[in-house]
Design a protein that fits this description.
The longest helix has 20 residues. The protein is an alpha/beta fold and 231 residues long. It has six helices and nine strands, in the order αββαβββαβαββαβα. The strands form two sheets. A seven-stranded mixed beta sheet has the order 1-3-2-6-7-8-9, sandwiched between helices.
Length: 231
């Protein structure tokens, strides 16, 4: 091990859930939703912990959010609205993605190769995980995208780094009133124009609102086990 995580601001403060083994061989970086912190998802992910996998749950910086009357709160980037045609914070999205890529680079320098690193997230965090993975120079192990959308979708597929075979698990509640499941379906359709359609799994959950559930987390665990197997 080498390097100082103080040089990666998000990593210095992140909540880390280590595996049960001293020999961690894989990492999942999981990004929380708007107004949240890494703590809540760290607790949830502990319930699907695998011995060889470390979870990293960074906290988003606080910033004014247009959607919430410029209230200052943890956010990965500014949100101006929640419809497919709302203007987006392009510079903020790209800066946030660079900050997540810095965590990937740090982990790679410290012994976890990018193909053993998975991104995941919920809502705004899921959106950022999709954008980051699709524009990352490295092909990652996969993406877990919960209740979210693809930011700057009109820039794709040209914005893609070209990794066609990255596995993506998209999960969405069928009763989500904040980000309707139809947006999730549109996102899945768009993703199939960017990567190999066979790599996209879009799972929906009856009665689930803008949150998670036991079955969804079991599906996430199976996805992680499949694409980050013990080595």
């Amino acid at each position: 091990m080498c390097g100082n995580n103080m040089s990666v601001p998000l990593l210095a403060e992140a909540v880390t859930v280590p595996g049960d083994e001293s020999g961690t061989t894989a990492v999942v970086i999981f990004l929380h939703g708007l107004g949240d912190t890494g703590h809540g998802w760290a607790d949830t992910l502990t319930g699907i912990q695998l011995p060889h996998v470390k979870f990293i749950c960074p906290h988003a910086p606080r910033m004014p959010v247009t959607l919430n009357m410029k209230t200052c709160m943890p956010a990965w980037f500014d949100l101006k609205g929640l419809t497919p045609d709302t203007p987006e914070d392009e510079s903020g999205i790209k800066k946030a993605a660079d900050n997540i890529k810095a965590i990937i680079d740090y982990e790679a320098k410290n012994g976890i190769p990018p193909h053993r690193i998975m991104l995941g997230g919920f809502s705004q965090g899921g959106a950022l995980s999709l954008y980051t993975a699709l524009t990352c120079q490295h092909q990652l192990a996969g993406v877990v995208a919960l209740s979210c959308w693809l930011p700057l979708h009109k820039n794709f597929p040209s914005a893609s780094s070209g990794h066609k075979n990255i596995p993506i698990l998209q999960c969405h509640g069928e009763s989500d009133s904040m980000i309707p499941v139809e947006f999730g379906a549109l996102t899945a359709k768009k993703l199939k124009s960017i990567v190999n359609p066979q790599m996209i799994t879009f799972s929906t959950y009856p009665g689930l609102s803008h949150s998670s559930c036991h079955q969804e987390m079991q599906d996430v665990k199976e996805f992680i086990e499949k694409y980050l197997p013990r080595i």
